[in-house]
Amino acid sequence: MERCYWSVLYRDRLGDPEWKARVHRRLAMLEGDPNDLCFMRRIGLTEKPNRILSAGCGTGNFILSWLRYGTSDSVVYGIDLSDEVLAIARKKAASTGIGDRARLYQGNIERLPWEDGLFDVVHCQDVLEHVSNTEMAISELLRVTRPGCYVFIHVPDYRLCFEPHYRVRIRPSCKAQAMRVLRDLDRPLEYLEHLNFVDPSRIEQMARRLSPRSRIMRLGRRTGNPFLWMYHRLAGLNYDILVKCDPRKDETR
Asked: pTM here?
């Protein structure tokens, strides 16, 4: 089931000539990856979270990683628009033998179905570049996070002259030029049309505007080249966003 899903995405929807290698890398993550949780260690989170949300959970890699490597008494929630990927995620969660700790829902992260302040950690990776209203989605992620707890956001940085889904070089943040490049390569364009080319700096600005009292941190992304990592850090490029929600937000309602 999962092999078929990734094959259709990389071969048919993205037209990637190296689709077999990308499918192979995806399937190698079927056991989960403890590195998915490294942001928890980097922020020094000592209190064990009871409820975790994977917003835009896809095929459930983060959920699987938490079930295998996270705290043993926490419950992981996931939400995604696609019934197809949710079916894959449910199957993967069941394979752990502790799938009863996973709660998966079909829905839109721009209108989350939970009450305010339910989750101790909200994880949103490679999702916000796909939504219609980025600011509304961020507002919802902040709303369902408990005061004083964390939202982790990862999006591609389109300022780096690279479109990571198609894996092609483009001018910084230039969707029109990406379309021209893909047409020249005879690659399908439908997937690109639904990308909004958001970047970490814009996510950071929206989060600060929506929750000015929250603490917003940049987490540098690891690269194989320490000089490249230092350049990104100095230039303010290629980082993840971590929001520690305002511990007083309940008092202001």
From this structure: 0.91
